[in-house]
Amino acid sequence: MTFKDLLEARWRDADTMVCVGLDPELVKFPESLRALPAHDALLGFFKPIIDATAEFACAFKPQIAHFAALGAEAALVELIAYIRERHPAVPVILDSKRGDIGSTAGYYAVEAFERFNAHAVTVNPYLGSDGVEPFLAYADRGVIVLCRTSNPSAGDFQDLQVEGKPLYAHVAAKAARDWNHGGQCALVVGATWPQQLREVRELVGDAVPLLVPGVGAQGGNAADVVHNAASTNGYGLIINSSRAILYASNGEDFASAAGQAARTLRDEIRAARNSHA
Ligand SMILES: O=c1ccn([C@@H]2O[C@H](COP(=O)(O)O)[C@@H](O)[C@H]2O)c(=O)[nH]1
């Protein structure tokens, strides 16, 4: 099954568009786990979180820098294998935002799809087509292209006018038209930018899913995301929240609190969709 098939089945079967971000910050872990070596702390934290949130998740999104900074890539490999075994209906998006000349991008594709065995990866389009093609060569995997990111400075380059349109609109068009021949592409557009979400959805139509980070800790509003960017069938979105779910409690109830936060976000998204229909 391809990433896109898995995602569409998950939207439909679990009726959820919540993406649970897996971004370890050891200082926010419960005290009992902080005392352990990093590898053990990560597994002791994320396995219960994954089990408690999977029911509400359309995807999991580990952010690679958070693991690499701890020298804990082995824990990430183990956690992705755990998700694939215990929760095979929930795709894993490796958030690594890779991009380089084609020959090196090929190694980044091996990293994402063979070393980590992710279903999809985030990719930086700045180097152009030959930097993206090595990822597209894995026909069953998803390639999620940075388009209009959630951060405050996103517009520094992404909003520059090029031939009468902002740069991010060119990225959206390129991904949707030239790179999506195998139906593998999705776009990253931040929840913090409702107007740009609407523009990108209008530009690419329903065929391209949008990965939308920025609800929760960054202040984006899930209802605004749905109202501006859901596809015509009411789905089409992968709405990520990391810190607001993971660190809902730093006590021994951390996993059940994360599950509750994921449930609340799922319900908020459902309510927005129903009020929009
Ligand atoms: O435009 C972007 C692209 C990626 N991210 C990543 O998503 C999560 C957001 O975490 P929160 O704790 O929910 O704020 C994080 O991994 C970022 O690297 C993004 O925020 N914006």
Automatic annotation (TrEMBL):
Matches recorded under Gene3D superfamilies: Aldolase class I (3.20.20.70)
To which pathway does this protein belong? Pyrimidine metabolism; UMP biosynthesis via de novo pathway; UMP from orotate: step 2/2
Quote the PANTHER family the UniProt record gives: OROTIDINE 5'-PHOSPHATE DECARBOXYLASE
Provide the catalytic activity annotation. orotidine 5'-phosphate + H(+) = UMP + CO2
User: What residues form the catalytic site here?
Assistant: 97 (proton donor)
Similarity comment? Belongs to the OMP decarboxylase family. Type 2 subfamily.
Protein keywords: Decarboxylase, Lyase, Pyrimidine biosynthesis
Note the InterPro entries from the entry: Aldolase_TIM, OMPdecase_AS, OMPdecase_type-2, OMPdeCOase_dom, RibuloseP-bd_barrel
Q: Which gene encodes it?
A: pyrF
Q: Which residues form the Orotidine 5'-phosphate decarboxylase domain?
A: 17-258
Residue ranges the record marks as coiled coil: none
Under Enzyme Commission nomenclature, its number is 4.1.1.23
> Where on the tree of life does the source sit, at the highest rank?
Bacteria
PROSITE patterns per record: OMPDECASE
- Pfam families for this protein: OMPdecase
Q: In which organism is this protein found?
A: Aquilutibacter rugosus
Any one GO MF annotation of this record = orotidine-5'-phosphate decarboxylase activity
Q: What is this protein called?
A: Orotidine 5'-phosphate decarboxylase
